[in-house]
Amino acid sequence: MLSSQRERAILQLLQETGSARIDALAAKLGVTDETIRRNLQRLQAQGMVTRVHGGVHLKDWGPEPSFAQRMVQNPGPKRRIAEAVARLLPDGASLFLDVGSTTAYVAQALRARRELLVVTNSLAVAQALTGVNGNQVFMAGGELRSHDGGAFGAEALAFVQQFRVTYAVLSVAAIAAPAGFLLQDLREAEFSRALIDRAEESIVAADASKFGRSAPIAIAPPDRFAQLVTDLAPDAALTAFLAGHGTRITLA
């Protein structure tokens, strides 16, 4: 196992409980304690974990609200953002939509568009756009998660890699400088990276409550995101950070 693969495996294990002993991680991954310490040193330098005596904590770990809870958080801003995203996308566009609550609002707004080609791992997105205005909707396979109706894992990744689209519309858990665009869940981040790699332009749809927050998983380098659609302007420092990486800000 390469060091980077082992670090991803460590983060995956920490997602389950938030913390672990070094010797337990070493036993699970079949390496020495010293190897785990070196991996943790790199993860700590990236701001993802906090080391303690004999163990490690996932930074900013905590259970994310359920999908239903997130759908009723900031509904007004999310609707405005969704409508702004829909205005950016023409009839006949090809796009990815992920499993976030804001992208579920985007799917509802996109019912005004025609003949879209939509690839998604979100049951809510597929239900909103299937059979509407001549759309083609492709749903990634695999087991659906009970808390958000999202499909993840090797099957879902292999499925989306068959497509090349114009836009990837993505949700995030946090946006901060200098970390960039962040998620709480490692599988969601891996899926988002696959979408970014297969799209010409990546658009983040996120309301202002995400600004300055923390989450443990960086999705991709900030310059991979062409545009942020949001309801309020970020503060000067975050605005400058995004501009420095070529990310346009569109206010809904």
Keywords:
seven-stranded parallel β-sheet; 252 residues; alpha/beta; Rossmann fold; three-stranded antiparallel β-sheet; Arc Repressor Mutant, subunit A
Q: Strands, helices and their partners?
A:
Layout: H1 3-17, E1 19-21, H2 22-29, H3 33-45, E2 49-52, E3 55-58, H4 67-71, H5 75-88, E4 94-97, H6 101-109, E5 117-120, H7 123-129, E6 136-139, H8 154-160, E7 165-170, E8 174-176, E9 180-183, H9 186-197, E10 199-205, E11 217-218, E12 227-230, H10 236-244, E13 248-251
Parallel strand pairs: 4-5, 4-7, 5-6, 7-10, 10-12, 12-13
Antiparallel strand pairs: 1-3, 2-3, 8-9, 9-11
Helix pairs in contact: 2-3, 5-6, 6-7
- Please identify, by name, the CATH architecture of the largest domain: 3-Layer(aba) Sandwich
Which structural class best describes the helix and strand composition?
A: alpha/beta
Major beta-sheet overview: 7 strands, parallel
> Given this structure, which CATH class of the largest domain is correct?
Alpha Beta
Q: State which percent range the strand residues make up.
A: 15-25%
Q: What does the radius of gyration come to?
A: 19 Å
- Per DSSP, the total helix count is 10
> Distance between the terminal alpha carbons, to the nearest Å?
45 Å
Unreliable runs, pLDDT <50, ≥5 residues?
Answer: none
Task: Give the rounded overall mean pLDDT.
Answer: 89
Strand order of the largest sheet: 6-5-4-7-10-12-13
Q: In total, how many domains does the architecture comprise?
A: 2
From the spread of the alpha carbons, the general shape counts as globular
